[in-house]
Amino acid sequence: MEDQLKEVPELTTHDLQSLLCSSERDFLIRNNGHQVKVESLKGKKVGLYFSASWCGPCQSFTPKLVKVYNELLSYSKFEVVFVSADEDNESFNSYFSKMPWLAIPFSDSETRDGLDKLFDVSGIPHLVILDENGKELTNEGVEIIKERGVEGYPFTPERIAELKEQEEEAKRNQSLKSILVSQSRDYVIRSDGKKVPVVELEGKTILLFFSLVTYKHAFTPKLVEVYRELRKEGENFEIVMIPLDDEEPSFKKEFEGMPWLSLPILDTTCEKLVRYFELSALPTVVVIGPDGKTLHPNVAEAIEEHGRKAYPFTPEKFAEIEELEKIKRETQTLESVLVSEDCNFVIGNDGVKVQVSELVGKNILLYFSAHWCPPCRAFLPKLIEAYHEIKAKDDKFEVIFISSDRDQTSFDEFFSTMPWLAIPFGDNRKGSLSRLFKIKGIPMLVAIGPTGKTVTTEARELITYHGADAYPFTEERLKEIEEQYKKMAEEWPKKVRHALHKEHELFLTERVGYNCDGCNGMGRGWSFWCKECDFDLHPKCALVDKDEDMDNADEIKGDVKGEDEEKNPKEGWSCDGDVCYKA
C-alpha cells in the first residue's frame, strides 16, 4: 500500500481494487460481518467516508449521510465506504453498527492510514466522492451532503453548478414554494406529525423561525405569545420553524409544545435556507410577505421589544414604531422609566423602600449586573470607588442595581456588598428596562440625567476609563476630559524606557482603547505604546514608580480569577472577555 501511494500521490483517478484492497484482503465488510468483494463496486460512484465515533461533528453528520444514502438506494449506483479513525475495535463496531454501508476492516490500519495520506485528510468528517471510473469528483462531499442532500446527486461539478444557478434563479423569482418545497417534499409538518401542503400557506405572511430547540432562549415563549395573539385575532399569518437540530428525539419532545408548523428535522432545505438567508445569529425570524417575497431578514428583536405591535412587520409598521419610540425618548422622565403600575419604589440593602419620586432631579446610574457574572464582580469594586467619590461631591447622584441573578439568595448576597439602591429581585420592571435600553450583555451602566432623559448607555466604559472624573457622563464632560489629557500630554515625554518592557522604547500615542500591561486596567486616550510588541502602559504607570500598586493589582486579579473558577454563567448567557452576553 505504501509503495502504491508514493507512486501516485498527485493522481485524481484511482483503481478501486488497488485503493481498497490489501495483499491479504480483497473485500469490504458490512456491520453484520458479511464480506463484500471490492470488485462489486465496479460501475458505481463511491464515497470514502473518513469519520470516527469520538468526533462530535462526525456524530452530527452521519445521520444526514445515512438519510441521503437510503434515499439514493432505490434509483442510483452509489456506495459509501467507511474509513475509520477510531482508536479501538469496540468503538469502531459500535459506530459502524449505525451505518448501512461498507467499511474497511478496523484491523487493516495500513490501508486506512494510507488513504488518509493519499487524500490529505486533515480533519473529519471528510467525504471524498469518486465516479464510476475511480475519478475524484470532489473532496467536499460533507459540504455537498449538508447543503444539497440527495439533490446533489450525482455530485458532479456540473450538477453543483446547476443547483447554484437554480438558487440564483429562485432568488430572482422567489416564492413561498421556491423557499420551502424540495424535490422530495411539498409539505411542512405539525407537532402531531400531520403534513400540511405548502400551497395552503400561499397568500399568508409567513415567519421563518430558525431555531435550535435544544438552545434555551427566553425568546421562544415570547414568540408563542405573539403567535397565539395573532391567531386569536384571525390574522392571515403562520410560523414555519426551520430546525437546525441534529437529534430527532429531543427535537420531537420540544416541538410537541409549539403551536406552529415546521420543516422536518434533518431536511436538507434547512441547510439550504441557512445559506440562502445568510444566517448569522439565533434567534432569527425572517418575514415572507403574502407575495412570497422577503419583507425583513430578522424581526426577532422587534418581536422581543414590541411583541404583537410589530405585526405585519412591513417598512411602514417599523417607521410607525420608530416615530413612537422617538416621542417616548423625547418625553422620557425618571418616573416613566422606573414606575410601573403599583411598583413606584426601589429598595436599600436594609430593605427600606425609597419612592422613585424622591430620586427625581438626580443623576441616576442603572446598573445591570448579576452575582454569577465574573465581569460584573470584577467591575463592581471600580464602580463602588467611583460611587463614593461622586457622592462626596454631589449628593444628587444615585445608582440602582437591576439584577439578573438566579435566585433571591444570590441577589441578597450580591446586593449586600453594594452601597446603593436596587429594584427588588423578580420585579417585572427588570424585563421592561432591559427591553427599553436593549440590554444584550452585562455589566451595563445606563446614565439618566436630572431631567429623566438618557444621557448614555456606555457609562460602564466611562467609569472603567475615567472613574469618578467621568461624572456626570455627558458629552460636554467627555470633551473637557479630552482637553485635560491633551494639555497633560504636552508636558509628558514623547518616549520612555520602562523596566516592564526592556526590549524597546515606549512612544506616547493617542489610543482609542487598550489594556494596560502594567496594572492590567483599561485605558483610553493616551498610552506609552510599543507598536512592535503591542505593549501599552497608562501614563501613570509609565511615568510613576507603581511597583507596589502593581503587586496589589496582581493580588486582586488573583482573587477575582479564583472567584471566576467557582461561578458558571446563568443558563441562556455566555461570558466572553469582560462582558456576559445573552445567548
TrEMBL record:
UniProt key word Repeat: yes
Annotated keywords: NAD, Oxidoreductase, Repeat
Annotated Thioredoxin domain residues: 1-165, 328-483
Renumbered residue ranges of the record's region Disordered: 554-573
Molecular functions (GO terms): protein-disulfide reductase [NAD(P)H] activity
Catalytic activity: [protein]-dithiol + NADP(+) = [protein]-disulfide + NADPH + H(+); [protein]-dithiol + NAD(+) = [protein]-disulfide + NADH + H(+)
EC number in record: 1.8.1.8
Record-linked CDD domains: TryX_like_TryX_NRX
Source organism, top-level taxon: Eukaryota
Broad class of enzyme this protein falls into: oxidoreductase
Record-given protein name: protein-disulfide reductase
Organism, scientific name: Abeliophyllum distichum
